[in-house]
Amino acid sequence: MRFVLTSLVLAGATTLAAGLAAPATAAEPRRCLSPSEQRAAIAVHKVVPVARAIRAIKARYPGDVVRVRLCEQRRRLIYVLTVLPRSGKVVHVAVDAATGAVVGGS
Description:
This protein has about 110 residues and is of the alpha+beta class. It has one domain (about 30-105): Roll (Nuclear Transport Factor 2, Chain: A), CATH 3.10.450.40. Helix content is about 35%, strand content about 30%. It has 3 helices and 5 strands.
């Protein structure tokens, strides 16, 4: 009985420590659109052209854009651009797909 109780206490402490190590504000989950959903969003002019999103990030995040995804996050569409700068450290930048404004970067 004592072994089981000790195991439960250790498991609880491990879970608590893992929870404390997690960032206070976890990133909102995002769902990237399928190719057909992307075409539909572009056809009804819900999004700015991807070239505008790329121009919006170039000054703050110079480098090569190696990937662009159109995703939905918190009920809005965002472009998620993956940039490879000269430093070699990959950067992910979020651009509001409706306005072309930069909304986040890592």
